[in-house]
Amino acid sequence: MIIKHDVVIVGAGLAGLRAALEASRYYDVAVVSKVFPTRSHSGAAQGGIAAAMGNVEEDHIDWHFFDTVKGSDYLADQNAAEVLVNDAIPAVYELEHMGVPFSRTPEGKINQRKFGGHTRNYGEAPVLRACFAADRTGHVLLHTLYDQCVKNNVRFYSEFFVTDILIKENIIRGLVAYDMIGGEFTTFHCKAMVFATGGYGRTYKITSNAHANTGDGLGILLRAGLPLEDMEFVQFHPTGLYRYGILLTEGARGEGAYLINNEGKRFMEKYAPKLMELAPRDMTSRSIQTEINEGFGINGEDYVYLDLRHLGEKKINERLPEITGFCRKIAGVDPVKEPIPIQPTAHYSMGGIPVTIDSEVLADGKSQKVEGFYAAGECACVSVHGANRLGTNSQLETVVFGRRAGKAIVEFLKENGTEKADLPEDQIKTSIDRVEGIKNNKGDEKVGVIRHELQETMMRKVGIFRDEQKLKEMLKKVRELEERAEHLQIDDKGMKFNTDLTEALELDNLLHFAEIIVSGALNRQESRGSQYRTDYPKRDDVNWLKHTLAFKKEGEFIFDYKPVVITKFQPKERKY
Ligand SMILES: Cc1cc2nc3c(=O)[nH]c(=O)nc-3n(C[C@H](O)[C@H](O)[C@H](O)COP(=O)(O)OP(=O)(O)OC[C@H]3O[C@@H](n4cnc5c(N)ncnc54)[C@H](O)[C@@H]3O)c2cc1C
User: Fewest 10 Å CB contacts: which of 13, 57, 63, 239?
Assistant: First the structure.
């Protein structure tokens, strides 16, 4: 079956919906998503969305700009970071006017809380910058944007699993998807497309990410011969619920929670005396892991405590109802009375699809665009977060750059809107054959076993601390797993809701880019942001102040580099 729309958007998280809303003001827009839109991972976002509104105390856009660049360990492209911070305030007001129920100050303004790395006066002390709706910010943003899209007649194709894109002569033509409900392959034919497929936390065993976060968009782009940028930078969030990885928002520390070790000490005073628990995530996660490695974990185990007790029951229930509910229901811990066991959890992918500040996908990662193709949100690398993202800057990125993608498409279609370029039949066939091949494969390997081995070894060897030996071992392991994945056995031979098959497709995507994460980390002989090499513990601006680009050509990975855009803030030593 072939379905035609002017614009097709893959992904129904905040980035996809924001782009859809913008483009649907003028064009016929479809959103394709493998999960029901409001089940996208954006809905799990807790703590807030950054904007230097100054509603509660003095704040300035330039401070936000500085914090974002310093937080990124100077790898952010400053032209992009400037767009992010400048667009932040109008973007939040726009959301408010759409009906987002933000938490309020007593006089009725949007309330703001503290978050890691967001500071007053260029690093002096934490500042109240994150706009929030209790600890359910992503939930209310996602539902509001979904409402708005429905109102604008955006057409949704839910539970369609996109397998490949169709590009010919460097022009985007459409995509192939497996319609899980109908049980058949569907081709979408369009004039412009946005990828907003989210992150890939599921490459790791302990993660805050939804099961759907398998980075499919990135695997799809690699198969299409397009590059990925800065994939070695994977953020570990400091406070995942011990053993489960479920996120306990940084908003908890923003409200004043402490991190304590087995001696009952607030150990962050050793690592970040000025910002303490509100240091950026890369530093805080490393500090927790160091405490654990040096024997200061609680009862000698792999966790420390997040302590909320001194905040008092009223504030805890009012500001942090969601996460305290998780603690009670899942871990049997009542944060009003007991400290919460936590460990760092794989959380966010700084790298992704290289794009311009108007969200246009770059075929060579540098300047050549793919006509009609855009990417935004966590799957994209624009790069506003560089080597380490600040909390609350990601939801901001989704709405700012999703909106820009929508606007760019409207402009693009004014010139290129007359007819749809033809579909490459051979590519459609190759895509369907690949999926059928996986489904009908006769082997002795199981998806779950290979995925578990990948996640478990990535956790141990490409986690918070990395070194050459562990990375080389992991490279060998990924290649072994790739080879074993050739021998998968899919038990379900049906076509309707074949989750055995979709999990195999997700695994294929995970394995496709896992090698790039590992090789990128191995190549980068320095420590910067989330990439910490114990054998190269210093940042090396002379050799490594540059972005990694990785392509897959004829089965081999090729690496290239491009300079960082520096406009205002020269790299300095990073102290907090
Ligand atoms: C627990 C948690 C809490 C967070 N809290 C915050 C916070 O407080 N503040 C903040 O700024 N950031 C936060 N983040 C990060 C932020 O929420 C995400 O980075 C952001 O929401 C990602 O949005 P997105 O639109 O790019 O992707 P997602 O919301 O992840 O959506 C991805 C979409 O792509 C679709 N998709 C993927 N693959 C396919 C395929 N093969 N076929 C079809 N569809 C596909 C999915 O169905 C989904 O609709 C948090 C993240 C997590 C995990």
Answer: 57
